[in-house]
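Bumping with the actual sequence this time:
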Amino acid sequence: MKSGKIFSGMTCHLIHYPEGTVYSPFELKENVYIEQPVWDEGKLSFLGVDFFKQKIQLYRYFPENQELEMIKELPLGIVENCYNLALKVSPLMLCRDANNKIFEIVWPENKRIEIGQTEDLLFRDGEDLYFSEWYEDPEYHENVIIRDLSTGKIKEKHSGYLIKLPNGVYWKISL
């Protein structure tokens, strides 16, 4: 932490529903932050930041054998700050959402794309980035924006929103 202060740390417990079995892949440690997991390719992936070590750590957790594996460790200095730092899928990416209208992929590649103030990444499909954009006029509306990964340019824009079903298929909803 840049302030030099110590915080008690964060961890994540996974509770299997409905029987209530608790899995705790991380120990609680001072100045270690663990973000909520994302589900990708049959595994849970976690973002951790160890402020003592000045490291960003990416983990995969295999629920079937309760195994935790560090898949990448990055220096904390590669990001300006941890504001809006999160894992996104598929493929697994470390990103920073809408910081001053800039969407940033930090890992596994490094890209910065100018986006709208209210855009958030939904997912990546090959070289296409799917964003959700919201606005009010005065009613609430959403758009799906598809941007080119290499240029950031808008390829398509549609009224409505996308939802992901449990089988991984996305459906567009128009109201």
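The tokens above came from a reply further down the thread. DSSP finds no helices and 17 strands in the chain.
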